User: What shape does this take?
Amino acid sequence: QVQLVESGGGLVQPGGSLRLSCAVSGSIARILVTAWYRQAPGKQREFLAGITRGSTTNYTESAKGRFTISRDNAKSTVYLQMNSLKPEDTAVYYCMSDINTAGTVTTYWGQGTQVTVSS
Assistant: This one.
């Protein structure tokens, strides 16, 4: 059983920073790609950033310059460093991984972590 567990969310003032973590555990043969998404109230879930096993990254325009995705393969953990946070960054943040287990690629999602940016 594969599990993705996000952590690091919370309440932060505008202009502040947070680092989210996504720890992957279970029967993992190979994590192919991990990505961060977010969903604000009343809005669709949106892609923010992704990173491959080889550490190739890509970002949506809204994340470029303020958010940085990174990974620690030894810990099977992916991070999202978020700087200069704005109230409109308030959302539930989810991580997603495409994982190859026994030759089958499956997409897994974490349960989400709440980020609230408010003074």
Summary: The longest strand covers residues 91-101. The chain has a mean pLDDT of 93. The chain has no helices and eleven strands. The CA atoms of residues 42 and 104 lie 34 Å apart.
